[in-house]
Every structure is written in structure tokens, then in C-alpha cells.
Design a protein that fits this description.
Elements: E1 10-12, H1 19-24, E2 30-31, E3 34-35, E4 44-46, E5 49-53, H2 54-60, E6 63-68, E7 73-78, E8 84-90, E9 95-102, E10 105-113, E11 116-120, E12 125-126, E13 134-138, E14 147-157, E15 160-173, E16 176-184, H3 187-194, E17 195-199, E18 205-209, E19 212-216, E20 226-232, E21 235-241, E22 251-259, E23 262-271
Parallel strand pairs: 15-20, 16-23
Antiparallel strand pairs: 1-5, 2-3, 4-5, 6-7, 8-9, 9-10, 10-11, 10-12, 13-14, 14-15, 15-16, 17-18, 18-19, 20-21, 21-22, 22-23
């Protein structure tokens, strides 16, 4: 319910004031440079510092305030702005992923895990339910500790699906162990550097990876219209091919390893068929 009374919780204003002086000089509060009239009657002084009700400030800032007495929570939000909601959970990792929906996309991601909260304002994903975020919690770098892998679909359409992965792994810091994101080498750059193709007939292409050569009947499979990250056999992988429909015959599977503080290609191979990835449910 929306607050109809003054809360007992107060916002500390960053103002230094001498209590004695407040009895002589009328106390003034400014929000964005504009004075709030009638505020002195709701200002309280605690240990010489002024406190004012949350609702009063939110009204001036045109923020919406809701207090849930049952769950003992307070919600402050921009009026008319889309609200954050749960977009994926994984009980195994005790992780809940939140995001804001806007114009067909998810943005302003927030991860709640192990009692802490991490913000990821630059992540983006589609809000289509069929392409929702996927969470994995496996020891993908073989250090004896599970890493949280978040796969987001950044683009999809007829014959197209592009995903990106984010790996969060436990790291020792001066405040203890926290989950920090690690870099992942760009799979398209890996292919451009390590995979060579040569047209050998009207419908045949020769794919060379190192000393291995294979033929594919579809020349345009390296258009990278399918970039699909997953966790496969306890390793971070990405499968890259051409169209989803009509399906391309083969594709490139890149298996990553953690080296030099980032995830780099350990193995690059051509496959005639997409692997049967284990796809974790978004809500577990």
C-alpha cells in the first residue's frame, strides 16, 4: 500500500547544523535547488543531525513510495518507469536475476546471490520468454569451486540467434571472497584467427582448423547467425553456425579454458551436428 503516514524510517540529509541555531533560524530544505515549504514541522534532530521522512522527499522528487508491512519492505521508484522483476533463478546457486523490461529488451540487471547484490547496468537481453536468461552453476575452470554462468540472448529472429555469456567466479579480495566477472575471448575473433575456408565447388567448402580439414555442403555457415553459449561437460562452450532455419549442416564448437585471468579458446573443432547441450531452466 502507498504510504499515507510518515514513516519512522528517515533519510539523513547531508547538512551540518547546530541544534541551538535551528531554534532561532527557520530550517530550510532544498531539493534540486528548490525549497520545500512547510518542511520544518517534520524535521527531527537526532544527535545534532536533521532527519526528514522518506515520503516528503519522494513527493518532491516525484518518486512513488510503497510500504509492505507484511514483508517489511520499502519500495521507492520513479513514477511511470518500468519496475525491476525476477527474470531467472537457480536454486543450486542461491541466485536470483532481476531486470527491467523496456521496449522488448531486458536492461538494468541486478543479481542477488549469497546475500549480496551485484549490479550490471550494461547487460542487455531480449524479453521474449522463449529466449530468456539461462543460468548454470558448474566448476568450469576446475578450481574446485563452482562458477555462475549467465547466458543472455541479445538478438533473435528468422534463422538468427545471438547470445553472450557472463562468467562470475569467486575471487579473494580484502573484504573476503566475492563473485567477480571474468573476460571471455570473442568467439568470432577466435574463428577469424584460427579457421580457414575455401570454396572447392558450387556447394562444397573446405574448412581447415590447424592440420584438420573437413568439407561442408553449406558455404555460408560462417555468417555467424547462430552464436550459442552453453555449459557442456562442465566446460564453457560456444557453438557457431549459419542459419537456424533452414539449418546449416555443420558448425564450429569452441571450448574455453581459464588462462591468464580470462577465458580463452582451448579447443576449436568442426562438428557436423550441433551438440546436445544441457540447458538449465531459467526458473529452478
Amino acid at each position: 500500500m502507498k504510504i499515507k503516514w510518515f514513516l519512522s524510517i528517515f533519510v539523513v540529509l547531508l547538512i551540518t547544523i547546530v541544534p541551538v541555531a535551528s531554534a532561532v533560524t527557520p530550517f530550510k530544505v532544498f531539493v534540486n535547488g528548490q525549497p520545500i515549504f512547510g518542511i520544518p514541522s517534520i524535521v527531527q534532530f537526532i544527535d545534532g543531525l536533521p532527519f526528514v521522512s522518506i515520503e516528503s522527499i519522494c513527493i518532491e522528487l516525484k518518486l512513488d513510495v510503497e510500504y509492505d508491512s507484511k514483508n517489511r519492505t520499502l519500495h521507492i521508484s520513479n513514477i511511470g518507469e518500468p519496475q525491476s522483476e525476477v527474470v531467472a533463478t537457480l536454486k543450486k546457486a542461491n541466485a536470483t536475476l532481476y531486470a527491467t523490461k523496456r521496449e522488448g529488451h531486458l536492461e538494468k540487471f541486478r543479481l542477488k546471490m549469497d546475500g549480496g547484490i551485484r549490479w550490471f547496468p550494461y547487460w542487455r537481453s531480449t524479453d521474449a520468454p522463449a529466449f530468456g536468461p539461462k543460468l548454470f552453476f558448474e566448476d568450469i575452470n576446475q578450481d574446485g569451486k563452482e562458477e555462475l554462468v549467465i547466458v543472455l540472448t541479445t538478438d533473435h529472429g528468422t534463422g538468427i540467434m545471438i547470445t553472450e555469456a557472463h562468467v562470475l567466479q569467486k575471487t579473494k579480495t580484502n573484504i573476503g571472497e566475492i563473485f567477480e566477472e571474468r573476460l571471455i575471448d570473442n568467439p568470432v575473433a577466435i574463428i577469424n584467427k584460427n579457421v580457414k575456408t575455401k570454396l572447392v565447388s558450387n556447394d562444397q567448402v573446405e574448412i581447415t582448423i590447424g592440420k584438420k580439414k573437413k568439407n561442408d555442403t553449406t558455404y555460408d555457415y560462417l555468417k555467424n547467425e547462430r552464436i550459442e553459449y552453453s555449459v557442456y561437460k562442465n566446460e564453457l562452450v560456444v557453438y557457431i553456425s549459419g542459419h537456424i532455419f533452414p539449418p546449416t549442416e555443420g558448425g564450429i564448437l569452441i571450448t574455453y579454458q581459464f588462462k591468464d585471468n580470462m577465458y580463452q579458446a582451448k579447443k576449436i573443432e568442426y562438428l557436423k551436428k550441433r551438440p546436445d547441450f544441457k540447458m538449465e531452466s531459467s526458473f529452478q
